[in-house]
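Teaching assistant's notes for section 4

Start the section by putting this record on the projector. Ask students to predict, before seeing the second block, whether 6-phosphogluconolactonase will look compact or extended. Collect guesses on the board.
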Amino acid sequence: MGKPPNLYAFPSADELAPSLRTFVLDAQNAAIERHNVFRVGVSGGSLPQVLAKALLVESNGDGKVQFDKWHIFFADERAVPLDHQDSNYRLVKKEILDKIPKGMGTPTVHPIDVKYLDDVQEMADQYEKTLVGAFAARDSVKLPLFDLLLLGCGPDGHTCSLFPGSPLLREVDAWVLPISDSPKPPPKRITLSLPVAYHGIRIGFVATGAGKKDIMKQIFDTEEGAELPCGLVNTKGEDRVSWFVDYPAIEGVAFPARRGSL
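Reveal the predicted structure now:
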């Protein structure tokens, strides 16, 4: 058995934000020291809103966000125009990019190429080429190592657009995968593969609200839950994985949580 993931719990999403900021800035500073750039993969859902609370308020803990060093990639994306309400890019732009105060710098953002909306396989291939360009030649690195992946957890235990029972969970070589029949709309998407997700140097999950307590109990307290996509990231990522949750999300969870600040 490897080391278990870290589970940090806070009374509310607002009280979670300063510790999430500390976690992100630790990852940022280590990455900039290592290679002068911070490569981050982000998901959609409620994550961008919580992330905005953590990063855009300077009083939320010590340290400086150096957005000019950030390269933001998408852990998954829907095959829709960038201004579509289902677009993760649009969500990140609305919650974070459009609100960055002057002086915090401007991140480099890597959205999907909308030329390929009708061909998700080609869209996945093109996004993989984007990663190859950022992380080195395909034949020199087996997998891209994100400095930080910030992920969400669906009520069914999915993360990125990797859903329970999907054959995509068995993929070991591709970096980016196409989906044409997502069980959750919209059906056409691309997603990072499971090995890319669990090889992140640091991996952070954000899960808030009482609606998450049943799946959190399953992921952390049952053998079946360990086979769900979030559970697989936990198992493979071990203590490189940190969860930031509020108390309602872990009501009844037996797995030990650290309550309070990071």
